[in-house]
Each structure stands twice: as structure tokens, then as C-alpha cells.
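Appendix C reproduces, verbatim, an entry submitted by the partner laboratory led by Prof. M.T., so that reviewers can inspect both the input and the predicted structure.
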Amino acid sequence: MSQYIYENRFFSTDEMLKEYIRCVIYRKISLLGALFALLSLVMLLVTWRDGDSALMAIFGFCLFIILVVLLFSPVLTLRQVKADNQRIHNGLLFETVVRFGDRILVQEGRFSFSCDYHQILQLHKLSHCWVLMFGPRNGILLVPDRFTIGDPDGFEAFLRERCPQMK
């Protein structure tokens, strides 16, 4: 019998990483960026109505910069994540194995780490994967239909029992 209660095996896909970056890492940044873009747009319209071309240029430039950052930051982050994976694994693609026993163990090629259940703060259920957050920007990805050990239907209840901090 296995010493693990649950085991999840998968290969990371671009869709998973894009969704993780967009919905988890850049979620707050996107909301704040949209707020500042809206503020810049309002100020741009007010200065346009008043005919103040210097302020209009400043607010227009701010709006442009905010929109460029909002559009290109996730793309550049995805490129960086993929480059880091290539560097860590010497260009090879490895299966990610996440095991749940006394601790949570993650292994991908020669790279591995572990964490305690009390470190898990949040569970994000995305369309391509689930993310167990153990820091503000650090997460463990899982694919809900790729459990090789354990009953996937009982996994969330198992997590809620083991992870008292989890939201």
C-alpha cells in the first residue's frame, strides 16, 4: 500500500500556465491597472474638454503605458516561466508529480520541494488546473482529473481538513 493518500501526475501545458499567470499572479495587478487606466481616461477626457494639451498629453501617455504593461506583462511572464523551466530541466519536459501524505511533495525531473499543509493559504479552481497557494505569488498546480492515487471527489474535503488556513 502507498504511503500517499493522493497523487496527481500531469505535464504542464501553456494553457495551464497562461491561466495561472492571468488569474492568480496578475489578478490584483490587472484590477489596479484597470482602475488606473480608467482614471487616466477620465482625466484625459476632462483635460481634452478643457483644451489643456500639455495635461492631455501626460494623461494620454500614462494611459498608453498602463495599457501596454497590462497587455504585455503576462506574456513576458509566461516567456520567463518557460525559459526558467527550460533552464532548470536542460530543455527536457518532465511530468510533474504532486504527492499528499504527511506533507505535500512536488517533483518535476530533478527538481523537488515539499511543504506542510498549514502553509497552504488558498485554493484557486481554474478551468485548466487548480492552484494551491502557499504564498502571495507561489502556488502548486494540480490537474483535477489526473489523480493516480486517491478519490478525486474527496480531494477538496481532504484539503479543507488538512489545511486549516485555506480559504
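The chain has four helices and eight strands. Additional entries are available on request from the coordinating office.
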